[in-house]
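Reopening this ticket.

The earlier resolution said the output was attached, but the attachment link was broken on my side. Pasting everything inline this time so it's all in one place.
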Amino acid sequence: MRFKVTTYGCTMNQGEGLAMEDKLAELGHEVVQSEEEADVIVVNTCDVIDATERKILRSMRSLQSQGKGLVITGCIAAIDAEGTRARFPEALVVPVADYPVFAEAIEERFGRGDSVTMPEHGTTSIVPIAQGCLGNCAYCITKIARGDLRSYPLEKIIESVRREVEGGAKEILLTTQDTGCYGSELGTSLPELIDKVCEVEGDFRVRVGMMNPDSLSEVLEAMVGAFRQPKVYKFLHLPVQSGSDRLLRAMGRGYGAATFEGQVAMFRAALPRLTLSTDVITGFPGETDEDHRATIELLKRVRPNIVNVTRFSSRPGTEAAEMRDQVVSRISKDRSREVAKLRFDIAARLNRSLVGERLSVVATEVGKGRSTVCRDDCYAPVVVREALVLGQRYDTVITESTATHLVGRVL
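Inline output:
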C-alpha cells in the first residue's frame, strides 16, 4: 500500500508522525509525499483549537469521499475514539494510548508489503521524551488527550539520540507537552537528560522543547547550567500566556508573571544572546482591558524574540469552557492583533542589531528558490541566498534582517 502521513499541530505530533512513517516502511509499505498518490492517508490530528479541529474534519470527509483509506491518530482520536469511529466507520482509529501497537494495527488491517525502503527525514530529528504532563490548565484539551506525565526511560532516549546522530542528524529536537517536568516520577530530570544527550559523540545541536514556568522552577539553576553546554541551542521556549496574575490563577498556570520574568532574567544573565520564545492567549474568559494591558507591558519589558499568539478557543470538557464572562471574538481578535504587532516590532529591532555580526550556522532546510535556511547557535533562522549542503556548518556575515529572520552571506 502507498501511505501518506499528514500531521497537524505541535512538534510532539510531528515527531510521532515521523515514527509512524518508519513503522509503515518497516512493514514494507511505501511512504509517499502527496495525498493524491496515496492509497491510505494517516491523519495525525490536533485538537488544541476549534478551528483546527473543523479543518481536519473537513479534510477527512473530503478524503473519505475520494475513496481514500483513513487511519486516524493523534489528539482527536485520543479524546473521542468512539465518536471518531462513528463519524468515520471505515477508518482505522489509533488513539495515542495505542501507539505501542500501531504497527500491529496497520498489519492487521492492511497486511505487509514486499520491500523495505526507509523514508528520508533530513538532518533534523524529533525525539519525544514523555507523554502527558503534571499541569491542569483550565483551557487545555491536550491534557485530556495525553493524560498525566509518563516519562520515557532516560537510556531509551539516549539510544534514540545516538541512532539519529549516527544516521546523519545535525539537530535533535527534544519534545513533549512540558519538557521541564521530565523525569520527576523516575528520579531524574531534564537537566540530567540534557547532559547525557550532550555526551553522545557527534557534531549536532540540541533544541529543548517547551517548558512551563512552574516546572522550570523546580530545576531552574541546573537548567541554566545545562543550557551552557556547547551542543545546546540557546533557545528557551517558556510560555507565559498572560501578564495578569489574576488571569494566570484562573488559567490554573501555577505561577505569577514575576516568576516568568525572574526566570528569563536568570537565563539572560548567563546567556545574553538567548533566543526567547513565549506564548500568549488573548480573550481568555474574564480577561479585562487591564489584564490585556498587563500582558502588553510584560512583553515590552521582557522583549521576547518570538511570541506565539493564540485567541482563546473553548474546548469541550475543559474547565474554561464552562466559565462565565466569555470574551467576544471581536475583542479577542483586536487584542491578538495588538500583541502580534508588538511582537514583530520587538523582533525587528532585535534582529536589526545583529546586522554586521559574524555567525556560525548549520544548513537545516531548503528555502524558497535557491535559498537555504540555516540556524545559528541561538536557533535564529538565517537565510542564505544560495543552495548549501544540508547538515554542513558555514561561517556567515549577517547582511539584512526582517522581523522573522536574518539574511546571511557565506564567508
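Reporter confirms the inline version is readable. The chain has three domains: 2-110, 124-352, 358-410. The mean pLDDT is 96.
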